[in-house]
Amino acid sequence: METLKKIAVPSLAILAFLAFWEFIVWINDWPNYKMASPSDLPPAFARYSHLFIEMGWQTLWRTVAGLGLAVIVGTLLGMAMGFSKIARDALYPLLVGFNAIPKATLVPVIALIFIGQHDFNTVLMAFLISFFPIAVSVGIGLSTLEPEYRDILRSLGASKITIFRKIALPKTLPEFFGALKVSVTLAFIGTNLVEIVSPHGRGLGALFKSGETNGDYPLMFAVLIALAVLGIVLYYAVVALERIFAGWAERPQG
Amino acid sequence: MTNLIEIKGVTHAYRTKAGPLPVLDNLDVSVPEGEFCAVVGPSGCGKSTLTRLIAGLMKPDQGEVWLHGERVTSPRKTVGMAFQNPVLLEWRTIIDNVILPLEIVAPRMPRRDREDRAMHLLEMVGLKGFERKRPSELSGGMRQRASLCRSIVHKPDVLIMDEPFGALDAFTREDLWQTMRDLRAAEPFTCVLITHDLRESVFLGDQVIVLSGRPARAQHVLNVDLPADRTIESLYTPKATEMLHLLRDQIRIAQGRDGVPH
Predict the structure, then answer these.
(1) Is B134 in Cβ contact with A248 (below 8 Å)?
(2) Out of B76, B87, B91, whose CB is closest to A157?
């Protein structure tokens, strides 16, 4: 009963949303080239299904690769900032400044430096846009570790690496996964940004662009839906990882 | 009897923006093997500094700390620590929390032996049946019991406790005093207990050291002349009351309020 409810409630909400969308298009009598309605989408998916699979895969692997890079670099930066006050003072303004730059402005810069390296550019942008939350949360998680936690092992003569492995690392995991949920969405934006802007790009962003060029509005809306679905899949993949590795932080409800 | 802990002429100051802040001034403390030493004193007088010095987590500016006839210059495996905050690792079960020091001190000890040792202690403090729970599922008093088990699981020579019962309600605290007394009867260890609670110091201590206000030195040493098998009731005997009065007066002197009507 509970699981049925868990599936039924969001499903009904989505159906209600689609019905509302269909209704708005119908009542305004909008033509296809102004706004596509949900009923236009299945034919678009059917017609270009092989493209959706191919392009969706492109977008997916590049987002995951960029996010993986962000996890590695973000964690290393966070560790440096968490353990050393000098590193924190040195890196923080740089990172905040870099994060403040709207990443869309970096697309032409990257495109000029690495001309034609479409895969590389896309992964790079996904990484650049998503490492910041990870670095900050790991840094704060490590630097706010209560000294007693360290002392219980340090008083036994444990090495710094042991303390990090047994205490600091697991204790920072909930913060890390909180940041990863933000980062996965950002990385997805980064990937699509490059795919849409690059000429002769690949991925769902490029498919969207080609829909625009050809005035194929149902295709454009179909891509938006595909992006939403992929975004949901990525987000819940992170949630699943969080359950496995930091499930202890979840308090029983009620 | 040899002195297990020997603190000789320790002076220490913290460097702050406003200049050095002296916390300990030529402090002498000695604790014979197997004795329970309670340390009381006004707030902020450097009691916690003392625990960190004995544990080897800090070095004093001047003076020496000796454990077992060896000078303490760095942390050693024969020390156990417990704090006001139980600092249990939330991602581990209670039994895995208790085992933690053994992973450092005795990495080759088989898992089974570790668990047996931990279970033995958990049983003694009344936590049998809770060993597979997570800390967040336990009450404050139970968490502190688990923390006590962790601090002695590796059979340390010295147990250092920094206000371990400070955050508990009065009745839970009295329960834990009795647990502590029973643990000591079962597994002898030398103990330094920092506390704000004079009744606690008299109930648990063999000697009570009153530290003066900052910078702290040993202002008064009281030998607690009560039988080892004390009960809470022992605190209401004339002898105990007299000792509590004496300690109260010493604290007032340490606070610099001697002669002020109270």
Answers:
(1) yes
(2) B76
* A15 is a domain residue: no
Closest Cα in chain B to A172: B91
pLDDT at A66 exceeding the cut of 80:
yes
Handedness of CA B195, B150, B148, B225 (dihedral sign): negative
Q: Are strands B36-40 and B190-194 parallel, antiparallel or unpaired?
A: parallel
Structural domain for A61, as ranges:
37-246
Give the minimum alpha-carbon distance from A234 to chain B in angstroms, rounded to a whole number: 25
Q: What CATH code is carried by the domain that includes residue A160?
A: 1.10.3720.10
Cβ–Cβ under 8 Å, residues B199 and B235: yes
The answer to whether B48 contacts chain A (CB < 8 Å) is no
Inter-chain CB proximity A154 and B57 less than 8 Å: yes
Tokens encoding B251: 């604290």
Examine residue A12 and state whether it is found in any structural domain, yes or no. Answer: no
Measured between alpha carbons, how far is A55 from A207 in angstroms, rounded to an integer? Answer: 7
This complex has an ipTM of 0.79
Distance, CA of B103 to CA of B96 (rounded, Å) = 10
Q: Give residue-wise pLDDT tens across range A16-60.
A: 999 999 999 999 998 888 888 899 889 989 999 999 999 999 999
Q: Is residue A21 situated within a structural domain?
A: no
Over residues A98-107, the mean pLDDT reads: 89
Q: Do B87 and A146 lie within an 8 Å CB cutoff?
A: yes
Residues of A in contact with B155 (CB under 8 A): none
Any chain A CB within 8 A of the CB of B217? no
Q: Which residues contact B3 (CB under 8 A, 6 or more apart)?
A: B30, B31, B32, B33, B66
CB-defined contacts A:B, below 8 A: 61
Number of domains in chain A: 1
Q: Which domains does chain B have, with CATH numbers?
A: 1-78+158-262 (3.40.50.300), 85-156 (no CATH)
Domain annotation covers residue A19: no
**Is the pLDDT confidence value at A254 over 80?**
no
